[in-house]
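PROTEIN DATA CARD
Card holder: Heat-inducible transcription repressor HrcA
Chain length: 358
Origin: Dendronalium phyllosphericum CENA369
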Amino acid sequence: MEVQLTNRQQHILWATVRHYIATAEPVGSKALVEEYNLGVSSATIRNVMGVLEKSGLLYQPHTSAGRVPSDSGYRIYVDQLITPSEVLAKEVELALQNRLHWEDWSLESLLQGAAQILATLSGCISLITMPQTTTAILRHLQLVQIEAGRIVLIVVTDSYETHSKLMDLPPPQEEKQPDPEVIDRELQIVSNFLNSHLRGRSLLELASLDWSQLDREFQRYGEFLKNSVAELTRRTIVPAATQIMVRGVAEVLRQPEFSQLQQVQTLIHLLEEEQDQLWPLIFDEPEIEETGKSRVTVRIGAENPLEPIRTCTLISSTYRRGSVPVGSVGVLGPTRLDYESAIAVVTAAADYLSEAFS
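Structure generated from the sequence above:
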């Protein structure tokens, strides 16, 4: 459920999150009065913080303590209340340009260098995947109706491996259910369209497929097919032997959020021994913004499906060779991190690597 906040509630939530990020201490109304020009009394701030707590955006770790942002509070902070730092983005770009020398270094050394710069400037664990060179090439694709409202997408790759995904058809614009024979004909037309545009190309290139070329009556198939083939694509990518460059672990583990030995051990085990689980989260389904740049994915706390990082934030974006995503850049830290800086760092690094690989 989306939470609608007033301007005052937004401002106080913003100040609470900022203060907690800076201090790692529960935030009280007195601290906000002293350090932020909110223009209201301490009593008003307490009342607003109480409302934010009831909305699930703040919580009290102890009865007598101040408030701490919840995952939902951080989500609103990231989505609505901040702008990534352009100054830091330029600093990252300059650092990568000045310190990395493509003509002299091996690819692995370059990405290790980029990961170190990323960790230093973000204060987080940096994660950069090696470029994926062995992605599946489409040989044939077919959409088949198996029952009313249900279809299966079948993909055959150049290695003659078959992948399939069961899907619900998007609802028709009209109230009555379309004739199954009509659906069969439509699915054959869409299959022919996809085969003619994608045969012999990487499935990753579906992200740049121009769906406007599909006749208007078939447009309803576009978005849900794009998402479904993107999921199949992730299954068919063969990760490079050295999957993820990891830097900055020691510094991040000094943060108070990692005071429990068991938590530290499980996180390090994930980073060192179970990168195959982490890899699909970093190499997220590729999307491109209207500007032509890769989008940034921010997974906060419990939004992460892996237990060792459910108290962390993972920020990632893909880098590309031309229009095709070939690798990812990410940072991992406690949910109490400097989001403006971390998002800017990841965006700048992904854009730089995309330029370099293109």
